[in-house]
Amino acid sequence: MRTTSVIVAAAIGLALACDGGPKEGDYCENGWPQCQDAHTALWCDYGGAFRPFSCPGPDGCRTTAVNGQTVNSCDVTGTKAGDRCITLYSGFIMCQTDSSALKCNGTKWIDVECATGICVDGEAGIGKVESRGSCK
């Protein structure tokens, strides 16, 4: 079974210096994630509003310092169908096995079957999705 522990694009970002931090639905202009709570990141989604993204893994959503900058990470280990994702990740694939995966439908992760047993994880870079992956 494949495991994906961190989605990098949803995982690493500069923390905003806001009193109390952003809330779901607040206006935003950048794509850097913010930790809403221990297991939820808020990401600036299409339309300019913060939307929740699930971080169910043991490391959850956490803020650390890297090279003098504050970064947030989102541990997606253990993500399951029904967990929240965002429009930015619509179509993104996280392989569970060679023949099954989770796919973001724009609001939540859904189960998909890979009929030929070929699953390729999506790849994410800082602030963007680099490839969506595939489940054939």
Concise structural overview:
The protein has about 140 residues and is mostly beta strands. Helix content is about 5%, strand content about 40%.
Question: Which tags fit this structure?
Answer:
1 helix; 136 residues; 3-stranded antiparallel β-sheet; mainly beta; single chain
Structure write-up:
The structure is a single chain. 3% of the residues lie in helices and 38% in strands. The chain has 136 residues and is mostly beta strands. Strands 1-2-3 form a three-stranded antiparallel β-sheet, with no helix packed on it. The longest helix is centred in the N-terminal third of the chain and has 4 residues, at 8-11. The chain starts with 7 loop residues before the first helix and ends with a strand. Mean pLDDT is 84; it is low at 8-19.
Give helix and strand order, one letter per element, not per position. HEEEEEEEEEEEE
Mean pLDDT: 84
Query: Which structural class do you get from the secondary structure elements?
Result: mainly beta
Helix content: under 10%
* Unreliable stretches: 8-19
Oligomeric state of the chains in view: single chain
Major sheet description: 3 strands, antiparallel
Percentage beta strand: 35-45%
Separate helix tally: 1
The value of Rg in angstroms is: 14 Å
Annotation, overall tally of beta strands: 12
* Strand arrangement in the largest pleated sheet: 1-2-3
Q: How far is it from the N-terminal to the C-terminal residue, by CA?
A: 17 Å
Shape: globular
